[in-house]
Amino acid sequence: MSEQKKVLGEERRTLILQVLKDSPVPLTGSELATRTNVSRQVIVGDITLLKARNEPIIATSQGYLYFKQNSNSPIFERTIVCQHQPEDTERELNLLVDHGVLVKDVKIEHSVYGDLTASIMVSNRQEVKQFLTNMKETNASLLSELTNGIHLHTISAGNTQALDKAEAALKEAGFLIEY
């Protein structure tokens, strides 16, 4: 910690919320910790408290993001079911984002835990690359590895045509399970 004064309690949470609202990109816990002169663990606790107040903060592989939905432009969303090997993850995600689609999350149905969902929030190749780099650097496993590659994604776009084209690309690649 530097000699800078710590930002305390509610004042810190208000500051975190404002910084996240103003940021066009995700911010890591470490970045927020530096700004408020507290530990990353304190930030994790603050984010949990803010989420409990129904603030739309999501944890992505790139950091925390305040999820602002532009009310002027409609967002279309759908859930798709996919299956592929772990080594095809980059191709799958790139096929989706190349069609202007945001991949919000991945979900699986686990035999013990039930439904498991993890935020992905990638919308371009750079974010896909960063997500996969984070997975590799942390030696994390893909959720789909628990279900023989079967998983769901919530995808969104500004129009249904982008969603349709992304689904068609996944189908052509053999990744889409039609139900």
Essential attributes:
Arc Repressor Mutant, subunit A; Histidine-containing Protein, Chain: A; 4-stranded antiparallel beta sheet; 40% helix; 23% strand
Element layout with pairings:
Elements lengths: L8 H14 L6 H8 L3 H13 L4 E4 L2 E4 L9 E8 L5 H9 L4 E9 L3 E9 L2 H13 L12 E8 L2 H14 L6
Antiparallel strand pairs: 1-2, 3-6, 4-5, 4-6
Verbal overview:
This protein is an alpha+beta fold. It has 2 domains: 9-66, Winged helix-like DNA-binding domain superfamily/Winged helix DNA-binding domain (Arc Repressor Mutant, subunit A); 76-173, Histidine-containing Protein, Chain: A (2-Layer Sandwich), CATH 3.30.1340. The chain has helices at 9-22, 29-36, 40-52, 89-97, 125-137, 160-173, and strands at residues 57-60, 63-66, 76-83, 102-110, 114-122, 150-157. A hairpin with a 3-residue loop joins strand 4 (102-110) and strand 5.
**Termini gap:** 54 Å
The percent range for strand residues is: 15-25%
The largest sheet, given as strand count, sense and whether it forms a barrel, is: 4 strands, antiparallel
Shape designation: globular
Second rung of CATH, namely the architecture of the largest domain: 2-Layer Sandwich
| CATH-assigned fold name of the largest domain | Histidine-containing Protein, Chain: A
- Arithmetic mean of pLDDT: 90
- Report the CATH C-level class of the largest domain: Alpha Beta
**Global structural class:** alpha+beta
Please count the beta strands (DSSP E, at least 2 residues each): 6
Lateral arrangement of strands in the main beta sheet = 3-6-4-5
Total helix count?
Answer: 6
Percent helix among the residues?
A: 25-40%
Succession of helices and strands:
HHHEEEHEEHEH
Low-confidence stretches: none
